[in-house]
Write a structure and sequence with these properties.
The structure is a homodimer.
Chain A lengths: L1 E5 L6 H10 L3 E6 L2 H8 L11 H12 L3 E5 L5 H11 L3 E4 L6 H5 L2 H25 L4 E7 L14 E6 L2 E6 L7 H20 L2 E7 L2 E2 L25 H11 L3 E4 L5 E6 H13 L6 E7 L2 E4 H14 L6 E4 L17 H5 L8 H12 L18
Parallel strand pairs in A: 1-2, 1-4, 2-3, 4-5, 5-8, 8-12, 9-11, 10-14
Antiparallel strand pairs in A: 6-7, 11-13
Helix pairs in contact in A: 4-6, 6-7, 8-10, 10-12
Chain lengths: ~375, ~375
């Protein structure tokens, strides 16, 4: 398979490049280093030192003999993206090239506008490039479980059959998200669904929960291959932040009551999910949606787990319940259905004590690079 | 009331300026003349000759003694929009400043990207300006009945209570639109709903059907006050196009089977609906949605009505069923609920034979300006 990975420098992007390359596929990676630069500007850089993509592909080639092609550029520039599609004519395109942070999108108008424009124009450009070059190319788009919000009914896998006044129809599951960033993902889904219906494209939209972890089989071969890893308030997901806080001796920042519940997954399982989706394409004219998570946890449950394992390892972990800077329900119903990827072959890596211990161990290697100022600045939703 | 009207040069914008001004309100109109310029570029200019806004406000003042303030600029420029909000601190802002054409949004990637960016960034900017200057300012946003598409269940007024597996919640009515333009209106609704919930703003989102007509009480006072009026494939709504085609002796262009059904309303009723909404604001934290239509018709029904009246008036009208350039259902269920605006006080102007005759009479005055090349060029959805 020839796979084009957009957002190849990111937390998920680079491990995905290696995962496909390792399995014999031709990989083309594209990034504009937005995330890396934004982390510099906002003083919240990666815990891990990461060479640029060209350097990392050299290291990858030294170790494995496999080549990954890298192009640097911004895919909101349609001519640039189209030239890549024309040069490589990929079978599959994986779209990670979005501004991925909820707090970033809430900082001010300019960052909200950037998020809106970047996330929607990148998606539009991919749709047009696929239509123009090869309408059979399978688009795999990273959505988010956050699109659904926390409704008072079960969250089905993307779609819902509705019976109303004795008539029936099937619709996208109703979505109402908790940040402008998450809202752009709803808007993406609306747009993908329109063009899938109209042009007969093949799209898989992965409603992914927060990802945790720092290790994949590929990156474990050489520390220089490790992914970008954010642990700050802006770009860091909650469990990643808690682990680094625990290692740093900084009280875990639980927002509000901590009963907010979300569906989580291990970085290794993101790799599996995307790979399984690529191997079994959506049909022509199908918007296939999977709920990409393996276990639900409340924030309190995660904090307790980190404390238990951290204390056992000698870190003496404290938990600090702080006023919630976000607008979100702190008590809510949450029952998600997520069998689609299991049916495709996913073998989950659950959050066991061993996994948490391993996560502490690898994190501890980078303890000198921790910037405590990045843990919490209190970006307000209001 | 101090009312800011964005998109003041448009088919609805200018009549709305006069409608509020006539009733004693202070009106500030803003436009960047996008629609006017696009119609020049695409050779589909207004049937009616329309002086620019500064000239029209002079004429309006001569006739009524009432002033309307005009600012020319692009509200995707946040600094510009914010300066207007700071200067006037409006009680109500009416947002007509979107790219309003479905075919325009389907021409190519650049026009799709423009539509996406213009429509979403204008809405985002209004939300931020309201939050920054006066969070109590009531936002009235023009949505479209096209957001709902043609579902197989009754279309409720914006919201739907869903019971699923013995649990209940209330959601935005599921939306799936028939063009990229209509999809941007769904995306707007998603975004308005997010910020309304988060910031406690007051928003009325009007799901308006296709508007017809060329006459309002204000514009009838002087032909120089008449609105911009498009009758072409790109910017002209269907009944407006049929009337001009009939006057020009050009066969009415019915797309496909013609059983596509939509909810229509008279231009005079748009004025009433917007005015009634402004007079009775949405609550803080409420996204209030009305279905803004007065009668459903199929395309065939409209064509038959235009033929009947046109023939009676001596125009000898033909109907031409042409291959549908759009992707849309030509046979579908359509049952819309639209009582909210009636409850607010709307007195509809229905599409009677007299109304149609009056529409022919006023259109005929401009027959020398008809450009038959604009009627149909066949912009393809695929």
């Amino acid at each position: 398979m020839r796979v084009l990975i957009l957002g190849a420098d990111g937390y998920l992007g680079w491990p995905t490049c290696m995962y496909f390359s390792e399995r014999g596929h031709e990989v083309i990676g594209v990034d504009n280093y937005f995330r890396r630069n934004a982390a510099v500007e906002l003083d919240c850089e990666s815990l891990t030192p990461t060479p640029n993509l060209i350097q990392r592909t050299k290291i990858w080639e030294e170790i494995t003999g496999k080549k990954i092609s890298i192009h640097t550029g911004d895919i909101t520039n349609y001519e640039f993206l189209l030239s890549i599609f024309k040069e490589y004519n990929p079978d599959t395109v994986i779209h990670y090239a979005e501004q991925p942070s909820a707090p970033y999108s809430m900082i001010n108008r300019d960052k909200a506008a950037f998020t809106l424009q970047n996330n929607l124009i990148t998606t539009l450009n991919i749709l047009y490039a696929v239509k123009e070059v090869n309408p059979d190319c399978h688009i795999i788009k990273l959505g988010t479980m956050g699109e659904y919000g926390t409704p008072n009914i079960d969250i089905e896998e993307g779609w819902l059959e509705i019976e109303h006044k004795n008539r029936k129809d099937k619709f996208l599951f109703p979505r109402q998200a908790g940040s402008l960033y998450h809202t752009t993902k709803i808007q993406d889904t609306d747009m993908l669904w329109f063009y899938v219906r109209t042009w007969g494209l093949r799209v898989t939209d992965l409603m992914q929960g927060p990802v945790y972890g720092l290790s994949t089989d590929e990156s474990d071969r050489d520390p220089r291959l490790i992914s970008i890893f954010n642990y700050d308030e802006i770009f860091g997901t909650v469990l990643n932040r808690f682990i680094v806080q625990a290692v740093a001796g900084y009280p875990l920042t639980v927002y509000g009551k901590g009963n907010q519940t979300r569906g989580f997954l291990n970085l290794k399982d993101t790799m599996q999910c995307v790979y399984l989706s690529a191997g079994q394409s959506a049909e022509k004219g199908q918007l296939r949606i999977f709920n990409q998570m393996t276990e639900p946890f409340s924030i309190n449950q995660l904090a307790e787990k980190v404390k238990t394992i951290g204390d056992k390892l000698g870190y003496s972990v404290e938990i600090n319940r702080i006023e919630n800077p976000r607008v979100e329900k702190e008590e809510h119903y949450y029952n998600v259905h997520y069998t689609g990827l299991i049916d495709l072959g996913l073998k989950p890596h659950y959050l066991t004590d061993e996994v948490l211990e391993g996560f502490f161990t690898i994190t501890d290697k980078y303890r000198d690079r921790i910037n405590k100022d990045a843990f919490f600045r209190g970006i307000q939703w209001k």
